[in-house]
Amino acid sequence: MRHMKVAAVQLNAQDDKEQNLKQAFALVHQAAQAKAELIALPEVFHFRGKVPQEQLYQQIAENIPGRSTTPFLQLARDKKVYILLGSIYEWRKKKNKISNTSILIDPRGKILARYRKIHLFDAVVNKKVIRESKNFLPGRQLAMAKVKNFNLGLTICYDLRFSNLYRRYSQKGCDIIAVPSSFTKKTGTAHWEILLRARAIETLSYVIAPNQVGKDRRGIETYGHSMIVSPWGEILAKASADKTEIIYAELKKSYVEEVRKIFLNRRRRYE
Hints:
By secondary structure, this protein is α/β, with parallel strands linked by helices. It has a single domain, classed as 4-Layer Sandwich (Nitrilase/N-carbamoyl-D-aminoacid amidohydrolase), CATH 3.60.110.10. It has six helices and 16 strands. The strands form four sheets. A six-stranded mixed beta sheet has the order 5-4-3-2-1-16. A hairpin with a 5-residue loop joins strand 14 (227-229) and strand 15 (235-238). It is globular and about 50 Å long. The two termini are 33 Å apart.
């Protein structure tokens, strides 16, 4: 099949892991019932909040597969869909650290790819210091997989600001790039749409970007406005700023090929 219906799930995860998983499962099931073939959840859909480091390691982070992945393995198998678990906190026992890890599940209920966030978010937002590098171990490798007739590349949130990463995916033949996020309201207002459309245009790929929405228990507010963007930079679907919802779009392989034919020498001369 050279076309595919995709869904991006926007939600507000809090510090109750079991409730977050229940909410995410219900939304993915709803998208599958609506005939979406690839369903993407946002970054850290299973937990968002402040906990002591020891609790983060012992109760929130987990092995893969584990509590936050196993129900979706079964759901993917039952509904015959691809599910992108935007990211979970993965326990890296050998390193005594955690990775922020995105997981792609295929319609057989198998893990098809996993991507560990390369660029960690260290910043001051509204006078609140966010330092992912304190607890997290960055990834080192790209992750790609075949989803129906499309090549899908995986990234997470802050990666969006590093165009070279997206260029590498483009060079490897990606047709779709996923950007599950927990983008804050302050930076999202300024840069979210601009960056998503730029990454789509420069790679001539579809971009699927499910984002968190609302405040967490720390008072950090995310931007919402989940988006699906075409290779020409058109916004095919856009969520609201303030509620849990699912957006949908139809992706066409022929459209990727069409826009790429326009620029015959793209990115060749100076690399």
